[in-house]
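Researcher: Go.
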Amino acid sequence: MIARYRQAYNEQFRIERYEDMLDHITETYGHRPNFRVAETPVFVPHALKEKLITASEDILKTLMRPDFKTLSESAIPPHLHVPNETPHTTFIQLDFGICQDENGDYFPQLVELQGFPSLYFWQDTVARAYREFFNIPDHFTHLFDGMTSEDYIAQLRKIMFGDSRPENVVLLEVDPPNQNTAIDFYISRRDIGLEFVCISDVIKEGKDLYYVKDGRKIGIERIYNRVIFDELHKRNDLPRGFEITDEINAHWVGHPNWFFRISKHTLPLLDSPYVPKSYFLSDLDAAPDDLDRYVLKPLFSFSGQGVIINPTKSDFDSVEDRSNYILQRKMEYAPVIPTPNVPAKCEMRMMFLWEDGAARPQLVNNLIRLSKGEMVGVRYNKDKDWVGGSVGFFED
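Model: Structure:
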C-alpha cells in the first residue's frame, strides 16, 4: 500500500525465492501449508494503522461492556452450552475489508469478528520467513506494542500453559493433521511443545481427561480449543468418549461459548463508522428497498459458507430461522495491492489476546488475506496468483 515499498518488493520478487521460502517452512516444521500462501506481505501505512486501531477500540468497547454476556446469551445454542465459562474470551479476531473513500484514502470496514483462535503461531512464522527471504525494511513490524517475536512467543506460552507443565496442555481439534490450518499446530508443537490431539483420542474418566503419548496416559489440565462445532457434528465417523459440553476438570484456553458470543451475532450491537450497519432478520418486517446494497449471512457458518452476496427478495423471504441470519451493509473492497498482473483486494485481521484476569485485550499480531475474486476465499480465487494468506508489516 506504500507505493515505494510496493514497487521495490515487486521488482525484487523472484518466484524461486518464494518457493524456497515455502520449502524452508516445510523442512523446518515437517508440514507444508495446506492453504495458499500469498507471494507478498502488505506494507501498511501509519495512517491506516491508526484507523485500524481506532476501529478495533470502537468494537472492544462493546465486547468489554459489563452487560455483554447478557446481550450475547441468546447467541449460544442451548444444546451447545459448555459449563465453566470463563469471565471473558481469551482470543478476539476482528476482520476488516480495506476500502477507499472519494479522495483515495484507505479506510477499514468490519467484515466479521470472532472470539476464537486464529493462526497465532503461523502468523509470526510467515512474517519472519518473508523477512528472511525478501528485503523487508527494518522499520516495519508485524507485531504491536513494541513486541519482538521472542516476547510474542513467550506471551503465547504463558497463555497456553498457565501454571501447568506443557505435557498437561493439549491443542484440541478434529483430525488435526488434516486440518487446513495444520501448519499452525506443527509450529506450536515444535516451538513451545504444545501437543495437538484429536477429540476422538481423549479419554474421559469421571470428570478427568487424558491422552496417550508414547504409551503413557497423561492428564489434561488445560485445553487450547480449536474445535468448530459444525465440523465436529459432521464427523460421526469419529469415536468419542468425551463431549465438549461435558463437565470436566480442565481449564478451557478459549472457552467454546465465546465462539458463539463474539461472532456475527455481535454485529447488530456495534455502532461505529468502521462497522457497516447490520440487522437481525428477525428485527425486520420486510426486506429493505435497497436490498441490493446488503449481504445476507447466516450467523454460524465458517469460511463464507451460506453467504449470499447479492440477495433477492425471495432469498430474504425464504429464510425460516430468521434469528440466525443477518443483513449486513455491503462494502466495496478496493484493489489496493499492485501485483505483476491485476491488483489484489485486502482483508486485515487484527489479532488480540486477553489474558486471564487482565483488564482488557491486547493487540498482538495480524493476518491478511489477498483476493482477486468477488469474495475472500479459496473458491473465489482459484487459478489466481498473488492471493491467499499473508501478513501486514506496519509502518512505525
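Model: The CA atoms of residues 174 and 232 lie 6 Å apart.
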